[in-house]
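so my prof wants the structure for this chain in the tokens format not the other one, which i didnt know existed until like an hour ago. anyway here's the sequence
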Amino acid sequence: MKIKLLFLSSLFLMASFCERNDLPKDKVSVENETFIYLYFKTEQDCLDAQTTDFFINCHSEIKFLENGLAEIMLTDIIWRGEYTVKKKNIIVTFEDNHEVPEGTLVFQIINKSKIKRLDDDTVWKKMTGDSIWD
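here's what i got, hopefully its the right format
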């Protein structure tokens, strides 16, 4: 009986060890990545839309930092919050503010270079260079 119990315990231990070490092949990390949503197709379109009174923002962006921190710019204010990745969703929480009154935004991971904001169905692309227009 003791041998059976020891054997079963060993199997459970090995199974749990394997589960923790085997990451899904399609797991996407967003840490240290920036995603943008452009309001205009080209930089020239954005410049042409500017008025003399104030600058119209050309894009929104979200930066996924280390330690589960995120910064998002929706208009001209940068909000800092926390994010977690659960399956194919990135859940970003903020203190209540006028741009995110619910305090939470959810993005769905489409692939390594695109995420979709679920509340407005906008697709945000990964920023790859120093310019949002690349």
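also thought this was worth mentioning. The CA atoms of residues 2 and 8 lie 10 Å apart.
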